[in-house]
# Entry
Amino acid sequence: MQARQGAAIKRGPSNTMRRRVTFESMKRSAAAILLLLCSPLALVPQSSSLEDEVKAAFIYNFAQFIQWPNRAFPTRNSPFTMCAIGDPAEGTLEKTIEGERLNGRSITVRRLTPTDRLQGCHLVYVGALEAKRSEEVITAAKRIFASDGVPILTIGDSEDFIDLGGMIRFTQADRRIRFEINPDAAQRVSLRVSSRLLRLADIVRPRQRSEAR
# Structure
């Protein structure tokens, strides 16, 4: 059996080609996130590059299942801006959204440095390299909503991301990349999360800070 499977793999398309085709289909499917959750690509890989691609595809699809208020965009032609800080795979998110649009808007990616501000971001992903700055970024996003009324979707990897007030956190379960959502945090800043997305997520609420410690 193993020998036949090995021969089939050799005769089939390369891993790179299969990965490219699968991700293209995920980006364009109405059930894209369900495909991600069920796909073998959602398995936690030994190579971090594939894990980064899976997370980038998730981030792109999160944006499709969340509605931003009109005031989040200065003009009809304003792009949808994805911001990332501490992302170990610089360039992966850019490749994922290349040529894509969101509700008719072009999509751009901004790589934030520690001194950059969040103004103009519609979502911000705090990657593993800057996980220690999660609370700082979440607090900054809340301040922007309080002062300007502009919501920012916060996504991160750190174990305490939801407890700190973040909205979506990547997790791993049964060797698969999954995600948690705190819908209350999104609702507080006027972000409407699709029920379809909520059904696929692990719904969580932050613990009291004393418990988190």
Remarks:
- The CA atoms of residues 14 and 20 lie 10 Å apart.
